[in-house]
Each structure stands twice: as structure tokens, then as C-alpha cells.
Design a protein that fits this description.
Chain lengths: ~400, ~400, ~400, ~400
């Protein structure tokens, strides 16, 4: 028995001052068995080099461009070459980088939204299928143990047929025009040339849609939407409200906002079925409320010591006994763990993992949702079908 | 100084087995200064008489019909005659009874929804104006102290301009076709000939709309709606979802359901303004969360001992120090207190009360909302204006 | 079938500006079937008269002293005479008034603590037994539906043998020496000649002890206590902490404070048994958390529509469906309802009520607890037995 | 500028099946800049080797005994030798291993309780002082951002003088005699030869005492205790209740239990001062409630984006914006981060860190607390001084 091989990660984006790149690195560190070996952390070579040093990466693997990284890494020997590329740049670069990485035969783990247009998303899906590479998308909220358990409750029929889904994602950090003060995160997210045509819709509305489909176990089929831009002069939406009709008969409501003052990261979902209901809040992620018509509400709690009460995927997603809070990084790490496990499975090192992760399929679906919402919010349109 | 005169109440409906009639009586008892002196409690004279006895009302004032009650009471001397009629029947009778009471010169306190059609509601408003009688409508949730304080926060500008309102009212008691088992409350509420054309929409959606307008301090101007009937065979809606546009620029979402299993009486509202946000839940009515961009969230609590932190109307609506929970009956009693105070004011016994109550105006507005939602939910329609 | 006779109440204390007297009146009004007919509301005859007028009581039944009230009422005819005396004065008067009322053959409903000494409490118990009158004590927190259900869970053995009880009652309103500013409620509660030798201990510690014994279904047998006076110059305790040993093997902790800044009325209890646990908070009284070793926590909710899930006494203590909050006044009213029902039962008008109320027995036990705590808090003493 | 040197960790204990060893490794991985390079993971050399392989450690650094590890590592060159030893064995081995590591000139990071007797703890403190090595103790709950902020509120005087501290730590996992079924975690914790004379008291009571002193900014001076063993046949306490007197005048209550069914990891603390109060719950660690006499309660939330509202140490302890829950591992990682920073500071690589960590001093204090509680719980004793 020899030590398990590490899965080697290269990163594009995520240099100094970036938010989500650091999260990916912490998640990968916590996941175990993943090693960050190289990166093109910034378009500015000096900055990329500086980031690499801070991260303890050897300077020769701090690349000036992602193309250089793909080229050089592709030529390294098997036991050194990176296994996959983590794409953590602003949205408009996802497509180009991810496609190039796939073409160079690397697996890809990409930030959401997958691309800036549905067209590009579909093209990327084709590339994934053609190259046979593994492709993960960072819809990280599905990494929470109780989100997996919620999905299990629906999939197993415990809640009956789903009637209604209420999902929302509210934040307040863009309530003021901080992009005008140069706040870096705000700057690119409110610039359609970098973020794509959808603002709040693309940034967090897609998370809400993904979570709804994941737990309700059915795709959103039609949308009727209202898009708003509350901060004057902002060229993208900062608030979105959508009536939903799902493919298997459920209806629902999805809304998201980035101008809801002092809301932090308020992703919540409720599912009402013919036999029972459930409710989950991302800000209190280790608690799932389950409601029944004929007995008291249940407070289902995450935790390994609680195994008999949770579905296998939920148990696998826990690291600690109940009462020891696991949070955002842990859930994110579960995606990395599942993705790395899948790479190891593809290499024959382990059997299939009980943990799942969002793939290019989910990435495409989110872009189809964005596309339909944008069309529904135009004058005259009401219900618009989401391309399946 | 002599003892204050009681305000004398007659009741139509609310006999044995009725739910809301008993609530009105408890609220009136708690309000103080109101005395139930007569009633036409049931269409069945025997039953009406039995109800009167249980309630300690003399048999000669237990009337067989509301018309008889109006007629006989009108002839009683000033110091015995009832002052106002409480109408607590199913919806389809509100209009006829209320109009007749007004025509006989009685004040009226009427259950919601005001009528079953906007047309009748407008007619009733005319009658009120013509007769000069006082008219209260039981949108009881505005009786809570912290609802009054929430309205004050908006009205005073503390939250800035309202951008978004999210209001919902979810219940689960009609998740199964209990009307087929003869459950009395379900029976009339799901029968359009008794409840009117709107089911869940009329029964609780109107409360949500009223609360939203009360706190946001602006009328709903346009709606875009989806109505659902989830329980097969039910002739009215049991779930409603509405996108909202308000008159002064706010947008919003309203949804209500009576098939959301194990939701109890989940009326909640959030208001997001340009300066701050608020959140209130009817099931935890003594807490109001207020959110700011630059300082910690505040937990504002109801209670007389807390006076300096609450608006005058909110203080007036409290009976007890903070930490001594006041609930549904207390809030309902505040409407009765305000209505009785207004009657006493009209008689010159007291000056104006700091407490307000919903009038025929709010009753009409709710019917205009129902009317617009019903039209918006028809194929082809999207945004439909709410008649102002 | 004739209308039920009202139970007629006379009140001693509770004039203008009093807190608890008003609560008793609201509770009695909400209870139904109780009529306030007379009172000696204040030692100041003018004030007593003014209070009577405000309350709609005829001036000839506004008495100057409680002795006059007992004397005159005793001579009234059966169908006018008050049935019971509500004693709502400061503590030091309870004994004298209650004893006199009993001797005059009236039932008594008395504020807590029963007396200022255990000696007086035992004497009063003798008087009750000798006169055969009914005697209620306002340990009002046992009137909450879910307190009754909690007691039922223990009594039925559902939680197994009780191991540990954690009960606390924290307030903050005496964190500053407001008695020096003449605040009326603070004034008498911090004056040992009016309140007795126990401050916080007597005022709210007794509620906590009563609640613990009520739910744990066993008496406190021994105490080990620490009494504190945090506000300089205050002649009574304003904070108390007690280790508990119960008669049937449970152990526990009781603490109470009136200097815990911004705690409102924080009475909470947890009971841990060999099979399960429970948790209840007075400030969220319609929720009871029940915990099990092998299944998710349950959120048990009060409400009539929830009948199958609650014990009969808990159901009887509810007026409204779940989700319609019932609060402090409603719970208080349940004591009055039970007490009035017991009077009617004693007159042969109704059968036994499913609702219980605290009697002189509970009043004596609370004084025994106070007595033991005071002794345990003296130097040298550790565990002190509570007289049984 | 060169890449920062990693801080190299060796581990004693924490082999397959261990709970806390895995937590230490995850925490160290998340902390950054720490590398696990060697270990004596089990007394069984085969098992130790297997653990090393799973962890990706080279077989030659998987040692059979901790003495071998200290010996061999001491001879490695500077740039390979481990920097510190993490001691994660059962309690009875802490002293011997930690002392030996210090004597070999290694820094030590040790699980709590520090030792099994106060005598050993004091001896260890002497060794630390003599050798000049750094010594961390895993009182991990002080690693939470809002615990640091709570301490800041007290230290800065914002809450005034502390009057009362209520701290508790309740668990339910030992409510049944699972040690008799061989459950590994239960086995050693209930065996006095492995855990020391204190059961629940040593395992979690020490955490509560440490947290109380950390936040209240004053040592516990005297205790009055009741120790219980509820599970028959268990040779150590499984429940403890203590009245507290602090050195600067505060009083308090500490209780801990491991038989409180379905309590998970319920460490909570409240501090009441002369100007304000605070409340923190480990199971909801990103929320701190702060209470004031004259304005609404505040909900202070953890998160980097919230910087202006938090103290510098609290900000430094956050990795993510508010609303992105950070949990147990993150808090634990903050101790490792602070400890590794201190090692780097001692090597002159960085300046002082704003993050603190518990040292041998806190380890000794906890043992002094245990010692005093054990003595106070004997018959005849009441208040017992905690050696300072």
C-alpha cells in the first residue's frame, strides 16, 4: 500500500486581492489530496509571481498567461504535470480558458456562471463531451450536507410530489454604487463586458436556480420575470424576481437582490410537497427544518454522529459530529473533494464516490435560465420557456 | 366624572363552531369599554338563541335574522341600542349586511375581504360616505405594535425610499381536500358562491397586500400574477404568486399559499429601502429586525417599558412590558379599541386616538388588488394595473 | 337552559398606576364568565373611587378599605355578592387580606409570593383548609399550553426519569437604582418591609422554582445558594444562583437576576431525562423543543388545530389555531378560567375542569424554597433542606 | 522576496479512528503555512505507518513511538526537522509527551486538559519557562472571531464592570453507557486512568471555564460545586454544576453535562455588566448578541466585510464576508495560525500577530479550576479557592 497520489491543481486568476480564488484554495486545502502546483494568477506577470511566492509555489510554475501555463504544464512528466485547471477569473474569461484547458487535455473546475452567453455554454458542453475531460462548476451551495439531505428527501418521495418551491438569494453589498469608488469585486460584477449581460441574475440568481433544481429534482421549465436596477447608472440588473414553473408540475418563486441592505448571503429555499415540506437557510447551514401534516416539525441537524438520520451523501459530506458547525469553506471543499475523487476514479485509484459535484450540465442549465429570464423581462413577454 | 359609557356591539354570524366570531368577541372583551349586547349569530334561530345564552346575552336580543336585529335595535332607547354591528359571516354576506346596517345608521366593523367583488366594495364605500357612519375592516395584522413601528420607520424616512417589498402569507391547513370531509372552515372558503371567486387570494392574499401597503406607505400599482389550484377538484385557487410594482417606485413579491404543509400562519414581510431594511414575522410578533448598512442589526422589541425606542402608535398598542408576549388577540383587540375610541370620539367623549384602524378605504383597496390579480392570471395578460 | 352565572370578582389593590392589577383584570376579562364587581383599589379612598369609575364599577362598590369591602359584600344578596377576592397588593399585605377574606367565607386568588414568611404561608394554608374556601396563587407561567404539555411529557414517562433541570429567570429592569428615582414598581420590590426579606428571589425566583417543580413533577428537596446584591445600597438581593437537588433524584440549577441588562422576562427551563429532553422559553411560549437520542428534534407548537399532538390540558389551554400567537395575558387568563371553573364546579354548575391552577399548596412550597435559599446563602451553610 | 518557510508539524496520537487528531490536521491545513511532516500516530507501529501513508507522509517519518520521533527529528537538518509537536493523545499522556518534546527543544501544541493533575500542570509550566519553548493549548473556542470580539467588549469597558457570567457546555452523547459497547471516544474519557479524575468536568467543563475567563477578563477565584454521575457504574462525573466567584467581583454559574440528551455541543456564554450584556452560542458562532439598557439589542455578525464593526483580533480571525458561515474548523485553525505565526515571529520571519492563542498559562488555570471543583464537591466543603 503506497501513499495516495495527490491531485494537482493549477489556477487561473485568484491573485492578490481576489476573493473567490482564495476560497478555492482554502477549499482545496481542506478537501485533502489536492495540491496547488502552479498558476497564472494575474494578467500582470509581476503580480502573478508575487502571488505564487506567497502561496509557496515555485517561481518557475508561476505563469505569465494561462496559455503559457497550459503549454508548459502539458509538457511536464506525468507525475508533476497539473491534473486540472481551476478557473477563477471574472466571467467573461471562463469560456476561453476552460475551452483551451480542455483542448490541452486538462480537467477543469470552473467558477460560475459558466459563460456569459448560453451559446458559449453549449459550445463548452460540446467540448467537454468531445474531449472526455471532467468538468466541475462551482455551484458550491450543493456541497452542504443538508442540501444533499434535502435533495434526498425529495428524490426518495418522502415529501410527495413537489408543489411549490420558494428560493431566494439576498445580499446588500451593492446597495450603494461602490463600483464608482473602485471596489474591485463590485467593479467587474457591474460591468457587462466583464460579467455578461446579467448582473445580480448571473452572479447569484444562478445559484438560486441551481439550488432549486438540485433539491426539487426537476428542471425549471418556464419563467416570468421582472428585472430591476435600483442603483442609478448601473448598467446591469441588481435585483430580480421570477415566477417559476417546473417541468414536473411544481411552481415557484425565485428572487435575488444585491441591494437589500444588510442582508449578508441570504440564500434560502423552501420546498412544499404533497406529503411534507422542508426549509433550509445557507446562513444556518447545519439545520434543516422538515414539516409534516400530522406530527411536530423536525429539526434535522448535520453531523457525522447523527448518521442514522441522514442520507449517505449527507453523511459523507460531514467531517464533524453534530454541534460542531461546518460552514461555507467545508461545503466548497466537498465539491473539490468530489471532483478530485472523480479524477482519481478516472485514473482507477478509487471506486466511485458517494459525493457528487455540479458539472458542465448544471453550468449550461444556469445559462439557459439566465437567457430565459432576460427574454421574459422584456416588454410584452410573460412566460418564456427555458431551453432544456 | 362619571364612568365611561360602554360601546355596545351587535354581532351577525359567529354562532357555535365559528372561528372568527369568537376571536372578535375575545378581542372586544380585551379591548375594554365594549359590550356585546345582541346578535343574529346564526341563520338557525334555535342556534342563535343557544349562542346568545352561552354568551350571557338576554334571549330577547338574540335575533333570528340580521334584518330583525337592525329593525328592533334601531327602535331601542339611546342608552340601550347597539352602537355598531360586527359582521363575521362568510364573505358573500358582508355586502348586504354591512350596507343594511349603515342604512339603519349603525357603525359597522366588518370581516375581510370586504365583499366578493370590487363593484360591491365601491358601492359600500359610497354608502359609508353617504351615511357618514364609521366603518372598520378586520385587517387585524396592522394591530400589532411592531407593524405600527415598521410603518413609522418607513413613513419617517428612516429607511429611505422603499426599493423592494417581500411579503408572504403561507398556511398548510388546506393541503388536503378537507372540505370534502365537511370541515366547516374549509367548506365555505373553497366554495366560490360563499367566498367569492378568489380562494387563498381573497382569504389571506388580501391580508398580505394590506400589510404591504400599510408598512410600505404606498399603494400597489401593478401586478403580474400566477394563480394555482394544487388540490384536485378545488374550484378556487389555493396558492398565489404575484410580482408587484408600487406607486412610488418600489417593486416587490407577494405570495400566499394554503397548501404549504405545516406552515401555520406565516405572514412575514421585509422592506428594503435606500437607507435600511426591516423584517417582521407574525408568528414572532414582538420582534422587529432593523438592518443598517453601517452598524449592527437591531432587534427592536415590543413592550411598554421600552417606550423611548418605539413610535407613539406602537407604544399605544402595547399593554405589557417587553418580554411579556402579546399575541394575535391583543393585536385584534387594538383594532377594536381604535374603532371603539373612534365611536366615542364621534360622540364627543374623547379626543382623537393615537391608534388607527383599517377602514372601508383599505377594504376597497384589497378588492381592487384581488380584481387585478385575477385578471393578470388569465392567459395573455402580464402587468395589470390595480384600480386606484 | 339558562345563561351561565358570572363569577363575581372583587379586587384589593391594583389602582391607578399599578401593573399587575391591570393584568389580572385583562386576564379575567379574557377568561370569560368573570365580572369585576367591586374593589378596594387603593388605600387612598379618592383614588380607589377614581379607579372604580374608570373601570365602570358603580361608586358604592368602590371601597375605602379591604375590611369594609369584605364586610359590606358579605351582607349583599347571593346574586350580587362577590364570589372571590383578587389580592394584587404588594407582598406584605397578602397574608392579612387573604386570611380576612377566607374568614369572611370568600374564595381568594392571590398574587405571589403568597406571604413574606414561611410561617405566615403555613398559617394561611391552615386557614384555607379550615374554611374550605378555594385559593388560587398567581404562578401564572403554568397557564401556558406548552408548559402543561411539558409537564405531561414528564408525568407520562415519555422523557424517562428526570436527571437534570436547568431553570432561569433573568430580567434587567433593576440594573440601575431606579427605586431612588421613585419608580413605583421598583420602590416596593426593593423595600424589605413591603416585599419581605427576599428581593429578586421572592419576586421571580419563586416563579422559577414553581415552574421547575410543576414540569419536573417532583419537589425541590435541597438547595445550595449564592445571593447577590449588585446595585450598591439596595437592601435586598437582586440576583440569585442555586444548585438544586430534587426529591426523586434529579439535580438542577436555578438562577434569577434583575440586573441582567436588557433581559426582558427571560424565564426558560430545560429538563433532561433518561429518555429525552425538553426546552421552553417564556418569551417564545408557543414553541416547545423536544429532543430524542435517536431521531430529530421536534418543534412542538401550541394551537387548537394541533390537538392530536398535545395533551388534553394543553389543548384546553389554547384558544386559537397554531401560528396565531397567544401570550402572557392568555396564559394568565387560563389560571382565572380554571379558578372560576372551580368555583362554578363547587357550586355544582359544571363538572371538573381539565385546566388546573396553582393553589395555596404551591404558594407554601415557594415560601419554603425562599426560606431554604436564604438560610443556605448564609456563611457556613451549604446544602439546606427545603421543608416539605 | 522568497516564499515563506512552512512551519513543520509532527503529531503524537491521532491515528485511524481518532476524532481530535483529524481535527488538528484539518485545522493546520486550513491555517496555511503549516505542513505535517511526521508522526507517531499510534502505539501500534503498523497502524502508525498506515496512518502516515493515508496522510501522504513518507514512511521513514512514521515513528513507532513519540520518543523515537523526538530523537530522530532532533537530528534532522534545520530545514527538514519538525518545528513543533502536536499532542493529541488521551489526557494521561499529555504531560509525559509534552515535557519530553520541550526538553528536546521542540515547541508544543497540546490538547486539553493540559494534564491530569494540577501538580503536573505546574511542573509543565516550569518546563516551558525553563526551556523557553512556545506552548499552545487547544482551548479552541477562543479561536472564534466573535469570542475575540466579546472579550474586546469587556476589555474595552464597553459593558462596564462584569457582574455576572453564565456559561454552560451541554452534550448528550454519553447519556447512555456507550463505553460498555466499546465506543472508542467514550472508552477513554470515562476511564480515570486515561482521562484523569475529572470526567465531564475535565473534558468540557475546562472549556467552559477557559471561555469564561477569556471573555470576562478575570480569573475564577472561588467555586462551589456539585458533581454528578448519572449513568450507573461510570467511575467519573458526567455532569457538573458550579457557582462561581471571580477575582474582580463578578459572580457566575458554570454547568456542563454529557448526559443532556440530544444536546450537541452546546457551549454558550452570557456576560452581564454594569453597562451592557452579551450572549454567544458556539452552535451559532457567527452571531453575537449585545444588549444595552437604552437602545435595541444588536446582532453583531462575523465577517471580513464587516470590519468597521469588529475589533482587530476579531477581523483577523475571519476569512470570509459576513453571511458565509465559518465554523469549528476555522476557529481551530485560528489557534494554529496564531501558534505558527508565533513560531515564525520567534524566528524573526514576521512581526507579532494580532491573533492570540491559549498558552500553558491557560492550561494550568484550567487544571486549577478542576482541582478546586473536585475539592468543593466533597462533603462539608462549600466555597473553595481556585489556586491562582
Amino acid at each position: 500500500m503506497s501513499a495516495p497520489l495527490k491531485v494537482r491543481m493549477g489556477m487561473v486568476g485568484g491573485g492578490e486581492g481576489a476573493f473567490i480564488g482564495a476560497v478555492h484554495r482554502m477549499a482545496a486545502a481542506l478537501a485533502g489530496h489536492i495540491e496547488l502546483v502552479c498558476g497564472a494568477f494575474s494578467r500582470d506577470p509581476e503580480r502573478s509571481l508575487r502571488s505564487a511566492r506567497t502561496l509557496g509555489i515555485s517561481p518557475q510554475r508561476a505563469y505569465a498567461t494561462f496559455r503559457q501555463m497550459l503549454e508548459v504544464e502539458a509538457m511536464l512528466p506525468d507525475d508533476q504535470r497539473m491534473d486540472f485547471v481551476a478557473v477563477v477569473t471574472p466571467n467573461h474569461l471562463h469560456y476561453e480558458i476552460a475551452r483551451a484547458a480542455l483542448e490541452c487535455n486538462f480537467h477543469v473546475f470552473c467558477e460560475k456562471p459558466l459563460t456569459t452567453t448560453l451559446h458559449d455554454a453549449l459550445a463548452l458542453k460540446n467540448t467537454v463531451q468531445r474531449t472526455g475531460r471532467l468538468f466541475g462548476v462551482a455551484f458550491n451551495y450543493t456541497g452542504y450536507p443538508l442540501v444533499k439531505h434535502a435533495r434526498h428527501l425529495v428524490a426518495s418521495g418522502a415529501l410527495g410530489d413537489v408543489r411549490k418551491v420558494v428560493v431566494e438569494y439576498v445580499q446588500g453589498w451593492l446597495a450603494f454604487p461602490i463600483e464608482k469608488d473602485g471596489q474591485k469585486q463590485a467593479l467587474w460584477r457591474t460591468d457587462p463586458t466583464l460579467a455578461g449581460p446579467a448582473g445580480c441574475l448571473g452572479d447569484i440568481g444562478t445559484h438560486a436556480a441551481n439550488l432549486a433544481e438540485y433539491i426539487a429534482c426537476q428542471p425549471i421549465a418556464e419563467v416570468c420575470a421582472d428585472l430591476s436596477t435600483f442603483v442609478p447608472g448601473r448598467p446591469v440588473d441588481d435585483d430580480v424576481a421570477v415566477l417559476l414553473r417546473f417541468a414536473h408540475g411544481a411552481r415557484g418563486i425565485l428572487h435575488a437582490s444585491q441591494v437589500a441592505i444588510d442582508e449578508e448571503n441570504g440564500l434560502t429555499i423552501r420546498v412544499y410537497g404533497t406529503k411534507g415540506s422542508l426549509e433550509w437557510r445557507q446562513e444556518d447551514p447545519n439545520t434543516l427544518i422538515v414539516k409534516w401534516p400530522d406530527r411536530p416539525r423536525e429539526i434535522v441537524r448535520a453531523g457525522t454522529s447523527y448518521a442514522s438520520r441522514l442520507s449517505p451523501a449527507a453523511v459523507a459530506a460531514c467531517r464533524l459530529p453534530a454541534g460542531h458547525p461546518e460552514g461555507f469553506i467545508e461545503a466548497f471543499a466537498n465539491l473539490y473533494r468530489a471532483f478530485a475523487d472523480d479524477i482519481r476514479r478516472s485514473r482507477g485509484e478509487i471506486l466511485e464516490s458517494v459525493l457528487d459535484y455540479p458539472t458542465v450540465e448544471e453550468g449550461v442549465r444556469a445559462m439557459a435560465f439566465v437567457d430565459a429570464v432576460l427574454r421574459s423581462a422584456t416588454p410584452g413577454a410573460k412566460w418564456v420557456a427555458v431551453p432544456q
